[in-house]
Amino acid sequence: MEDRGWNWQFLIYLLKLLFPGQIIFGAGRMGIIYAWDLRGGRTSYAFQRSHNEVHHSLLASFKLSEMFEKIPSLKAQSHIDSKEIVSINFNPSCSYQLSFHLKDGWSGVLNTNTLDVTHMHCPPSRENEHSFDIMKKPSWLPNSSIYAVPSHSEIPGLYLLDFHSDPISACHVDFRDDFEDGSVKSDKVAIPAPAAPARNKLVELSEEPLVCTTHPINGTIVAGTELSTLLVISEGFANKEA
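Below the sequence we write its predicted structure tokens.
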């Protein structure tokens, strides 16, 4: 391969466009999420480099390990290092939620409105650290803010993670479980809240999944396994109580 003097540590190989196409987000090996502004005009960060090439300067960058350090519950329980980002995707039912999945199996959400990490899931560590050498690819379910993640645990399966935007989400960094009859209790009033979302659960499978995708209409999950098998999980089965 031709050596072009690239620094492979800073290689960006994940790109997602924020609807309606103004901001593009990228990520890669260093555990950093980048953002560029693609709009034209004086407020844009773009300038013409040549007749057929426009250069867009970096708008912002977010080092996830530094953002994790600001989450007290996470900092108290985990040793935090920079890890490679292997997947980013926008939530089809909540456009400002950008999910990320790290090589060590951690998953979370960056709120692109507030620029905060709002959700985290840190699965149990696995004795076989070589399992983390395999990049696993998650997927959003289309209508429910549930994030399907191939498990890194000893049990083959898919984690279905509750990434609803409300603090009653099981993965929210400010998780609240003090709700009754669809309301969250505050010091003064009962704040209306949506019905309690599904909790995190592990759907056990017969083979270890490496990647999954979902049907955009009916939510059927298709998982590809390490044995080159395709497993199909209906949304109805996935939503059954464990």
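The longest strand covers residues 94-102.
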